[in-house]
Amino acid sequence: MAGELDLIVGPQLIGALFNWGLLGVLSVQAYFYHVYFPRDRLAFKLMVYCVVIAEWVHTGLITSGVLTIYCYNFGNPQSPIEMHNSWFAVPIMCSAVSVITQCFFAWRIYMFSKSRWLAGGVVILSVIQGTFGIAAGIMMEPLHVAEDIAHGAIWPMILVWISGAAAVDIIIATIMTFLLSKSRTGIPLTDALVNRMIQLIVETGMLTATCAIVMLVLAKAPQTKNTLLYEVPSLTITKV
Length: 240
Prior knowledge:
Layout: H1 6-36, H2 42-72, H3 86-113, H4 116-140, H5 154-182, H6 188-220, H7 231-236
Helix pairs in contact: 1-2, 2-3, 3-4, 3-5, 4-5, 5-6
Transmembrane segments: 12-34, 46-75, 87-110, 117-138, 158-180, 200-219
Protein name: DUF6534 domain-containing protein
Domain DUF6534: 165-230
């Protein structure tokens, strides 16, 4: 990889720092959930806590990779572009977390619409993108450096995974917005709450989809493909 050194090592450090910062936000949100929803369903509690634990593991793996690159292998110019544990921390863990959260929203869609077709379609698309992401991670494990991803069958699988995840997020945001809009009652307080829910769903869905698209563009654009700029969104997308 012949990119400028600052565009190789810089994005890794920035991505890791953002990852830690967003983990703090997630931990606070999990604490609020624990305090304010003590009587929530056990299944929901398990899902939330499993996602939080997975995110802590994800951040630990990212931190381990950064320590390996900038501490244990300090001075080795090859280390920043080696795979280390990225094959597991990024595609596999991101795919697993995204499938869990998207399937939860599929359940919400079913509860609002009572349509098994809508909810089932979201689940199927989510599982497909997650399967491609996990398969891509497994295929990345034997690779030595990041630029090897562009060769062979791995890149098409990554393309399906990332674009599929973005598409599912957009579909979920669109469906939930439509369903919530229909639930307006004309009561100002209730409608304000519905509008707030729509805003949060649209913002979250569009943000994750945008991160995925930016990651693809930075990875393949001629001006940035020899850098690691794509690692900034790739290291933070699960926390968004």
